[in-house]
C-alpha cells in the first residue's frame, strides 16, 4: 500500500512509526470549541519538502478556482 501509485491514508499512524515510509505527510484534524475544523499538514523525510510545496501549489490553484480552503 505504501509504495504503489497513489495515496494511502492511515488513521492513528503514530502507533506504527516503524512501518511508515521515510518520506510521508502527517495530517492532523482538530475540532475547535466552536465546532469548526482545523487541518495541519506537515512533510516528513528527505523528499517531504518538495512534495509539500507541490501540494501547496495544488491547493493554491484550487483556491483560485473557487474551492474553499478554510
Describe the structure.
The protein has 70 residues and is an alpha+beta fold. The protein has one helix and two strands; from the N terminus they run ββα. A two-stranded antiparallel ribbon has the order 1-2. β1 and β2 form a beta hairpin. It is globular and about 35 Å long. The model has no long low-confidence stretch (mean pLDDT 83).
Protein topology:
Layout (H helix, E strand, L loop, with lengths): L23 E8 L5 E8 L3 H17 L6
Antiparallel strand pairs: 1-2
> What does the main sheet amount to?
2 strands, antiparallel
Overall geometric form: globular
Tally the helices: what do you get?
A: 1
Radius of gyration (CA) equals: 14 Å
Strand order of the largest sheet: 1-2
Mean pLDDT: 83
Structural class, from secondary structure content? Answer: alpha+beta
Question: What order do the helices and strands follow?
Answer: EEH
Which spans have pLDDT < 50 for at least 5 consecutive residues?
none
Helix content: 10-25%
- As a percent range, the share of strand residues is 15-25%
Rounded to the nearest angstrom, the distance between the terminal CA atoms is 30 Å
Topology, number of strands: 2
Quick recap of the structure?
The protein has 70 residues and is an alpha+beta fold. The protein contains one helix and two strands, in the order E-E-H. Strand 1 and strand 2 (37-44) form a beta hairpin.
